[in-house]
């Protein structure tokens, strides 16, 4: 029995290489980790502290999108560019780019949430600022994968297109098909146990929670003084 395998496969979640001394490459290497930060920092913390059904289904959509990406990659089996040898990334396929797909799904879904007024919005100007931020991150992430040598231009554009299409389709499905069942999920045994909720029907969630938190504090102080 051969105990030493011919080739080892790495877990490449945060394994991003760039040329020594390349400051732009160093910056873009960190940018290419934005999907990791969004997944672990954004959605995990959202579930722990917010438990909004819109956010939960947003995260589920991203997971489904990545499964679709992996299915297509293993079906098409298109190789990465020749630079994959230096990056030790030739053992995985390149079409479509999963980073680009993730970010364009995120940007598309987030923009559609803003258009519908779902989430924490501070007016039209802030919506434009938020849209500019996440679309800029999506484009720079796409560029980083080409610059660092992990993908070809065609591979990142395929990922971006697929991400936008899947993101828009999932948003429609959640808010047209699943949305009527949100009250049922809220009132279910599991929903009540996990304290999941839907506040997408509230125009200004931030103000609503702020006013209710202050009112609860005043009631508690009044009860203590009695």
Structure description:
There is one protein chain. This protein has one domain. 69% of the residues lie in helices and 0% in strands. The chain contains ten helices and no strands. Helix 1 packs across helix 6 (124-147), helix 5 (98-116) packs antiparallel against helix 6 and helix 6 packs antiparallel against helix 7. The radius of gyration is 21 Å and the shape is elongated. The mean pLDDT is 81. It is a multi-pass membrane protein. It is found in: Membrane.
Provide the descriptors you would attach to this structure in a database record.
single chain, 226 residues, mainly alpha, dolichyldiphosphatase activity, hydrolase
Secondary structural class: mainly alpha
SSE run: HHHHHHHHHH
Kindly, what is the distance between the CA atoms of the first and last residues, rounded to a whole number of angstroms?
Answer: 79 Å
Measured by DSSP, the beta-strand proportion falls in under 5%
Number of domains: 1
Major β-sheet profile: none
Number of strands: 0
Helix tally equals 10
Q: Which bin fits the share of residues in helices? A: 55-70%
Mean pLDDT metric? 81
Pfam families: PAP2
GO molecular function: dolichyldiphosphatase activity
Transmembrane segments: 27-49, 102-122, 153-173
Protein name: Phosphatidic acid phosphatase type 2/haloperoxidase domain-containing protein
Task: Indicate the topology.
Elements: H1 23-31, H2 34-49, H3 53-76, H4 84-87, H5 98-116, H6 124-147, H7 153-178, H8 182-187, H9 189-194, H10 205-225
Helix pairs in contact: 1-6, 3-5, 3-7, 5-6, 5-7, 6-7
């Amino acid at each position: 029995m051969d105990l030493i395998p011919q080739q080892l496969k790495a877990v490449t979640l945060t394994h991003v290489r760039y040329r020594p001394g390349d400051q732009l490459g160093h910056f873009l290497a960190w940018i290419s980790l934005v999907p990791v930060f969004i997944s672990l920092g954004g959605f995990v913390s959202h579930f722990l502290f917010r438990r909004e059904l819109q956010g939960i289904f947003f995260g589920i959509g991203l997971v489904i999108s990545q499964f679709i990406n992996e299915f297509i990659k293993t079906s098409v089996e298109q190789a990465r560019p020749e630079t994959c040898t230096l990056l030790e990334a030739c053992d995985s396929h390149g079409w479509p780019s999963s980073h680009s797909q993730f970010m364009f799904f995120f940007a598309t879904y987030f923009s559609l949430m803003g258009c519908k007024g779902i989430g924490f919005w501070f007016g039209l100007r802030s919506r434009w600022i938020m849209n500019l931020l996440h679309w800029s991150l999506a484009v720079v992430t796409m560029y980083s994968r080409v610059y660092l040598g992990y993908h070809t231009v065609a591979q990142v554009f395929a990922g971006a297109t697929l991400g936008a299409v899947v993101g828009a389709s999932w948003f429609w499905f959640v808010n047209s098909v699943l949305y009527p069942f949100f009250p049922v999920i809220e009132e279910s045994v599991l929903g009540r146990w996990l304290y999941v909720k839907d506040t997408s029907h509230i125009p200004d969630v931030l103000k609503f929670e702020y006013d209710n938190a202050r009112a609860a504090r005043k009631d508690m102080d009044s009860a203590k003084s009695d």
